Amino acid sequence: MFLENASQKGWIEVICGSMFSGKTEELIRRLRRAQFANLRVEIFKPCVDTRYSDEEVVSHDAHAIRSTPVESAQNILLLTSDVDVVGLVEVCRQLADSGVRVIVAGLDMDFTGKPFGPMPALMATAEYVTKVHAICVRCGNLAHHSHRLTADEKQVMLGAQDSYEPICRHCFAELRKKERE
Question: Distance (Å, rounded) from C-alpha 8 to C-alpha 37?
Fold first, then answer.
């Protein structure tokens, strides 16, 4: 996306952390600030994410912002001709290179504690990375992990408090140790 102001440069911002750490809240906060500054803003989300709304990005505590559901990351490139700020996942580098401020929010690790999807590469290429933390529901320390409460082994499984809980490194290691026994 080429901005009207050719002197503006694009960049990538990544907001990452565990489930219930405030990633979506921070994304919505940044996008609302951009709207307040009269920037053209668009946020995209995968069509499969229908947890709280089909056409809004909604945080776990019900803050929401209008979004455009997309089937794939490639669809985003077709829909970004009239915006200054974009929230999305996979086409970040191309958009930033063409002058767009790109904000991405997502899990940094999956439920097994392994780096999740494109996030490691996005964090490595981003100009700004913000890691947000939840509070461990077991001991009260900072939570870095999303512990899955169900037996489902799929890497991607949409869910909320009925499916995940935020836990710290120590509690995660203890749970993994018990699972191996």
Answer: 15
Q: Residue 29: in which H helix or E strand, if any?
A: helix 23-36
CA geometry: angle at 25 spanning 23 and 28, to 5°? 110
Averaged pLDDT, 85-104: 77
Strand segments, DSSP code E, in the chain are 11-17, 41-46, 56-58, 64-66, 68-70, 85-87, 101-107, 128-132, 134-135, 142-143, 145-148, 164-167
142-143 and 56-58 beta bridge pairing: unpaired
| Residue linked to tokens 């913000």 | 130
CA nearest to 113, candidates 176, 49, 20:
176
81: pLDDT confidence band, cut at 50, 70 and 90?
Answer: low
Task: Give the separation between CA 100 and CA 62, rounded to whole angstroms.
Answer: 28
pTM of the model: 0.79
Q: What are phi and psi of 156, to 5 degrees?
A: -105, 115
